[in-house]
């Protein structure tokens, strides 16, 4: 099977941040915490006495300060506006308590206070900041949502819900908490939006296959919230099957209703990330990361869609810390949503990113259209698509079929987008596009395709076939070939001696009627009468009477030009310059020795004058004196 | 009735320069039909024509067109220098003796139709054999004999409008199906660069053409008048190849291409491609599946391998049958739509630029049933208007009324011809003119006609 390889690309489709965010590595005197809501690493030295450093991707939010050591810290997190720091410590046999410190300009003030959980004997599993001045305590008894009033050094209960859970998973993008109850058989999601707690549809798993904390995470993908679960095959089986990732929708306002099953084909330790609406499944032992696209076309059976990786699994691009190569897929890595990786031993924080061109590095010939479709759904996909299309066009001798299908994919997206726009425009504001299941990160218009891809290939060997395939694809998606595409098609076909094909296409209506196209054809008409014939038909269909009149005048068909003008009637006929017509008529009459042609037109114009102004004479400004003389001469000769 | 079978008196080709001396007159005659005519009679006929042609040349630089005697009409056509093709047709005439026994006066054949017959005969000859002058003297007599005898005998010209105006039936296809055809051709030409697809015909309707205008008509006529009818007859009989028909096969050469020896039987043709400037010699290969026929040409200097044809067969077969079924579905839908809007209007349309021919009088599908809907007088009027391009000019309209209440309107505009036949006893010129305008607008949507 032959492979397509995009030139000047590397095999890697995933990379870590160019430079890691450095922090003090984990050590006996240093503790490292990560807050995935703000994406910040807290390094606490000697319980905070010798300093706490906060590092994040956002330099402006990085800070360091000192604090008292009041016991081992379990969790430490800033509020989203960095004005309150919340700390949970491990106090044996004490009520569940969280301490707060007000901050100003990223420096601690001396205003400190604390809050005790409402349930006696409850154990705080963790706390989260759904929004500024709102904190939720997640305990084994339930969730308590509180409003923080920093000035009053108080917290006010907003809402609480009881649920007996052992552990939880938090998604900061959607403010969703997933609590695991009943030994990991029952998963109960809660939404913490709008200052309240909303219970969502629970997920019940087979009692024989409960899940563990490390196998569950809540992710945000395609504007929906999902529970991602690693389903390892039963270990008692003699030959353990590979692990699957199940994506179950928790809240889907936009049409994702069924479970997606991602087939990894591997066993071992996994971690999952979301990058540019792609699910990344990292596999530690093989040191590879697979990509899954749940937006791809898939067959839904039993309310389940099955996916396989969009390209063969590959490693991430090796990361460097300074000049030092970092160990990849290290056992010290900790993965956080949506795209963070921490190596606590090295003291590095990375985000992962997609390298779209890596997807096209080695593609099985048949899968080229699929890759184009995948790239069309990526925010950074456009440039790679252009590069792929350019290369496919250059190698059209090998890839004509795949190129045609790639055009189809591009136009399918365009069609869907156009339909949606149309629906939105006709329905006014009632249709909310954000609720649609389709996102359109890359829409390639005809003008863009022409200027970025086709234009530069105008001298290619197979440009005629490529342009034909392009126009065909437009037709398949019921898109009219616009001016840019039509103009290019005409130019390419004529330049390559395929004018016959052009005419055949025009006769079948493959290029939409348009005045510029008609003018282009007219200019060919001198060499190819058939092109002129088609141009005139096209103008007639467009009701472009003025243009037809001009064309006929230029063809020395004065009588017909006047005929068309009179058919058009109204202003077209009434405003036509008499001097122009008489000049043309005189020329015609003299060249063809047919003075009657001039006389006929003269009479028509005189009639017109009479109708318009009640007088047969021409106006002074119309400068027709010489023609009046000519008329008199002709009449006297007869 | 324009019936050539009974009206053709003789058909011959001569070149005076081949036997300039006395006693060598027979050498000058390249071909003579009918062949039962004695050599003396042949010499006399040819001699007369030679004399007339020579005599006329002193008066005009234009070659002589025709000669009419009381009983015969001679039509001359000089396709190449010194080569003359002559068609002699009997003119119906009456003598007292004949009318006494009831022999009625027949119709006069339009000279233009005879002339067209000569031209198309020559073009067909040139397509397969090349120009006369390129054929060696020693071969030319047999070559002509072998070509023209079957040609003349098989030429079946009936009382049909499509013989008066020689055009091409195009299949009206929607653009997506049309693109399927083109993209199939593109893919094929990319994968088999030696092969060029020159035409794609469905039943007897053209979909794709890559030849120059003149050669396109000749090849089209060869396909729909000669090759395909015999092929269809074979298919109906259901001979040995029937089973393989779904997947298609090569029909030219007629036995197909199965082994190396068959490659020697490939037909050679002289053709000029569209957007090309010279005529070249090619192998002509025709492939057919279901009702779709595809013609390819390959440069004669190409070294052909039987494997190429096998792989070509495997490539085209399945794809072509899919395309053929798509087109067939389209045609069924169209036929249903057309059936609903049957109108009594009789019109004929012809576009000189792409030779498109359309007629409500004789739907191409019903070609097997000879049309009797047009009276010979009407045909003759249309033939006259069609050939007399001067009287209508670039654009114009002529309305002719003949006895039997027939009104024939001929319209030209922008290189198109449009004829409407109306049978209406008490009509005025104005009414006919309006009716023609209405029919023209209804039938020729999206076509620009010069205002009259």
Automatic annotation (TrEMBL), chain A:
Superkingdom per UniProt: Eukaryota
Domain Regulator of MON1-CCZ1 complex N-terminal: 32-155
Residue span(s) of domain Mic1: 378-620
Pfam families, alphabetized: RMC1_C, RMC1_N
InterPro entries per record: RMC1, RMC1_C, RMC1_N
Signal peptide: none
Native source species: Galleria mellonella
Protein name: Regulator of MON1-CCZ1 complex isoform X2
Automatic annotation (TrEMBL), chain B:
Biological process, per Gene Ontology: vesicle-mediated transport
Any matching Pfam family: Intu_longin_2
Residues covered by the CCZ1/INTU second Longin domain: 199-314
Cellular-component GO terms for this entry: Mon1-Ccz1 complex
Domain CCZ1/INTU/HPS4 third Longin span(s) in chain numbering: 343-439
Segments forming domain CCZ1/INTU/HSP4 first Longin: 10-130
Family, similarity comment: Belongs to the CCZ1 family.
Protein name stated in the entry: Vacuolar fusion protein CCZ1 homolog
